[in-house]
Every structure is written in structure tokens, then in C-alpha cells.
Amino acid sequence: MRALLKISDGIDALLNGLSKVASFALLGLIVVVVFDVTTRRLFQMGSTQLQEGEWHLHTILIMCFLGVTYIHNQHVRVDLVSGTFSSKGRELVELLGILLLLLPFCAVTGYYATDFAYTSFVRNEVSQSIDGLPYRWAIKSMLPLGIYLLALAGVSRGIRALVALIDPKPADLVAEEKGGV
Packing angle between helix 24-43 and helix 2-22, nearest 10 degrees? Predict the structure, then answer.
């Protein structure tokens, strides 16, 4: 069980590390939005590149935080029924949801998102706007990355649910050591 939890901890560390790096996109987004709004309002200057940069930075943030929000249980969840379940019942529902819904969704979506980004790369796709940003494939590559990070988070959470179903004590000890999950 400890070996499985170490794998989960490794995945969690990877997702947390990537999210810390990606969080710098938020600083960039703030700078770009403030600059864009200021130049539009005060100087009546518009920039397609700034506007495209805004949604590029939004995409980086959203895709890089899909997985980390799941491992920290910060995602949207509908707990109408599971609130009445025992802890083992909730873990079973979590595990079944991961195996039957999340991972298949990530597999199909990841496949098509990868093809979407690859096609953009092969075509060396650029913005449709004459003064837009080049390398559209780079931002499209964030789509499969985000989906694969979400799948990794599902594997991590699935491992924890499985361990909790088999022997809840090790999962509780690891959660206490980490300061709660």
C-alpha cells in the first residue's frame, strides 16, 4: 500500500510543481490585461496580439490547473447523494467514477486534442488575423497537456481511493503527514 501511495504522492508533486510554474501565467495575464485596457482607454490603441495573448494565457492557466484542482478536491462536484454514503461508499463511487467516466473521457478527448494540436503543428498554423500571434499550434498543444494532467490526477486519486477501500489506515496516515488532502 505504501508503494501505491508513493506513486500517488509523486504524481501529486508533479502536478503541484507544474501548477506553480504555470501560475506565472497569471502574472503575465494581469500585466497584459492592464496594459491592453490602459492603451485602449487612454490612447485609443488596440492590439490583436494583446487580445490573443490574453486568451493564450487563460488557456495555459486552465489547462495546467485541471489536474491540480482535482487532487486538492477543488473541482466542481455534485454531492447530493454521496453525502449520505459511508467513507468507503464515497471512495467506491470515486474509484468507479474515475475508471468508468474520467479516464475514458480523458482517453478519447486526449486522442482528439492531440490530433488537433498535431495537425496545427504540421500546418504551422498562425492566427487568422493578419497582425495576430504566430505558432497557434503552441497554444493548441495545451489542450492535450491539460487533459493528460487531469488523467494523471485521476490515477493519483484512484490510487488513494483504492488504498482507502482496501485499508483506510495508511491513507489516513499519509493524509495526516501531508497536512490533509
Answer: 20
Whole-model pTM? 0.84
Interacting residues of 62 by C-beta distance below 8 A, sequence separation 6+: 146
Residues 18 and 152: beta-carbon distance below 8 Å: no
Q: Are 104 and 148 in contact (CB under 8 A)?
A: no
Closest of 84, 73, 86 to residue 156, by C-alpha = 73
- Note the pLDDT tens digit of each residue in 117-138: 999 999 998 888 888 888 888 9
93 Rama sector, left if φ>0, alpha if ψ -120 to 50, beta otherwise: alpha
**Domain map (residue ranges) of the chain:** 2-177
**What are 15-72's pLDDT values in tens digits?**
999 999 999 999 999 999 999 889 888 887 878 888 888 999 999 999 999 999 999 9
Task: Check: CB of residue 34 under 8 Å from CB of residue 118.
Answer: no
Give the span between the Cα atoms of 97 and 146, in whole angstroms: 19
For residues 111 and 174, give the distance between their C-alpha atoms in angstroms, rounded to a whole number.
34
